Amino acid sequence: MEKQEFLELFEAAILAAKSAARGDGMSSSPAVSRCVDAMVRLREAPQSLACELVKYPQIGKSHVLLMDHNNPTIQSEATFLYSLWTGYLYVRGRKQNPRSDKGKQSQRRDGVHKKKLVEEMKILTTGDSNRDRVRGILHKSLSRVANEVVVVEMKKQVVSCDSWSVAASVESAMFEKLGSFEGTQKAKYRSILFNMRDSSNPDLRRKVLLGEISGERLVTMKKEEMASNKIQMEVQKIKEKARDKEENRVKSMMVFQSGSMILTLKF
């Protein structure tokens, strides 16, 4: 697949998605089929081409529209494609040395690697648009940790972690404990995702990525527990001030009551 074909397929997927959004949005509609077919063909894009083009801002923004589409079939396929391309970028970034192999042997190795990566991405996606979207949000949050950590030794630990696997594990724990992303549990989902994405809360992301906080533990944590270390310290100070104020109030009452008793005895 060449660059022009990639861009044409992507544009076709976007136009079909917009058409589906204006229509009834049924999974069986022609617009939905055209959109999904285009995205399925985009899976065939060479790894190097995908890595080059997905960095384009216009493609990134448009892909978000696909992942947020009101049709679950389009959402699911867009999330899978996002997972695949992100996996390409992840593998490319982890390579220590450029390949020296060329020719047919190198191409075969690329084909085997791509097939393996596609299979891994299928494992990391569920086919449920809501669940895959949660996994995508968690992955984006966890991917930020490498740039937030400054301590060298800790950075080595972070880089060695697979953010996709952790995101899938955490989402699985959330789904098992909370059920679907709907109804009364939607607020809990949003609370967890908000804290994981919060720019002022890198501590939570780091602890989850490094396994210091498991998915099972994260689901049971209160808002105060998920807050950043800084906010937790501030909350602790407020509680301590309130406790000291209450203790002083009780002491004042006791002194007042003691004084009243003394006056009563004198009379």
TrEMBL record:
InterPro entries: TFIIS/CRSP70_N_sub, TFIIS_cen_dom, TFIIS_cen_dom_sf. The keyword Magnesium does not apply. It comes from the Eukaryota. Keywords: Coiled coil. Residues 221-248 form a coiled coil. One of its GO terms (biological process) is DNA-templated transcription. SMART domains: TFS2M, TFS2N. PANTHER family: TRANSCRIPTION FACTOR S-II ZINC FINGER DOMAIN-CONTAINING PROTEIN (PTHR11477), TRANSCRIPTION FACTOR-RELATED (PTHR11477:SF25). This is Uncharacterized protein LOC108815315. It comes from Raphanus sativus (Radish). The gene is LOC108815315.
